[in-house]
Amino acid sequence: MQEKFKIITGTFLDGIAGDIPSNNWGHKEWEKQFDNMKEMGMDTVIIIRVGSEDSAMYKSKVMQTTIYYEYDLVELMFREADRTGLKLYLGLFDTFNYWLRNDWDAEVEINKKLIEEMWERYKRHKSFYGWYLSHEGSMKYHMTKIWKPLAKKMKTYDAKKKILISPHYVGEKYSPNGRYISPQQHYKHFDYIFGEMDGLVDESAFMDGHTSFKNLGGYVEATSKICKKHKVDFWSNLETFDRDMPYDFPTIEWIKMRHKLEVVQPYVEKVITFEAPHFLSPYSMYPSARNLYFRYIEYIKKKGFRL
Which domain holds residue 133? Predict the structure, then answer.
């Protein structure tokens, strides 16, 4: 059992509207958000993706999206991370096209070029701590066919930079038709995946929202064992949105968030979330997210944390 309670010390940053709407923040709003994340004990931010389908966080010669920010939102986040001392992981371009058709080569090719482009743009930043492989893993697709060549490419620039993934648990909420897998099958699946990756993944932040609350502990315990076997740091991606609602995606109920945070305590090295700006911030567009933030701060102060 671990001695110290682990609070949320990292968050994904969703810079372009995908499955959740935009906060429509500018420079001042992002500055306040970075200050808030620092104040609440965070040390890590992860840009979940710089491009999605036909939208991007900057005007890229590689992605060539129709929609893009008029300024470089990635650069803004790097500057804010530099200013506040947060470590930043840089995500990639998810076309939501090639790889869904199992055309891994096309997905890999455009992202290799993007890695080259972004390395030249952002390598000077002191906060540039690692890379995030944006394509999320599941049973449906052979993600190592994307992850492995891209991770190898990343390591050619700076082998010391960490590489993070955030796969699914294929639980009841991921496959409501009954085709979910047990924690034991999950162990076998990622035993193969981590073996295939051959040491190229440094950290794996498993999403906690695709299984029932009562069965989460079984998946977490199995994952802890497999991560230790392959020397991958085991993080929890604590989803602060609610998958139980009949629409996508409202802020999670506090008692659900508390349960998930407490379940992972004996097993994980770090807790991050998807994602603070929308679902765990006093500046969120959602009033319920502001209230969730206040409940969370009250809770961790009772645990003895001074913010």
Answer: 8-302
